[in-house]
Amino acid sequence: MNKNFTILIIILSFFSCKKEKQNLFVINETITIETEVLDYSDEISHIKAFAKKGNYNKDIAFMIDYSIHSGKNRFFVVDLKKDSILKKELVCHGDGKGKNTTGIPTVFSNKSETHCSSLGMAVMGERAYSSWGKNYKYWIDGLEKDNSNMRKRIVVLHGWKGMPENETYPNPIATSWGCPTVSVDVLDELDVLLKENKKVLLYSFD
What we know:
By secondary structure, this protein is mostly beta strands. It is built from two helices and eleven strands.
């Protein structure tokens, strides 16, 4: 038997506008690691069209892909001019009162007291006091039918000291009551961007 195994590693490294999933294939004596690449160009184009139509920020935007496990980076800072991802981080989703306790949420809502995340286009609002993290938060105003009650529901961007800095997959991170919650350090980084950029869009999808 030939002991010289051929190891073929295909690494597709697309840092911008991509999410990746690895699959392992064994063909005879060849081991292939193939990366399935999904493109975010449609989502970014949607944000850019929305920004142009509504006179929102045309330089940067935020995206949350709730189809990604919570233990993986799924909060994205997007460079709208270069159609690229500037930053990837962890973010919580709403627990849905026990319906969304696993890594991927299956229930979303625009209603109060559901503890669910909302989908759709929103815009980052003003900075205000918070009892969480470093005691500040950003209000979020929903711009579509499915997220119009975000401010009324007090769904805000805030930090929490219990949020990990690095990916935890396959273990999920904590859930929230619907707020897109990030780590305290990440919020500080986003705070710098939001102080320099007004009317930044946040697009959440699954």
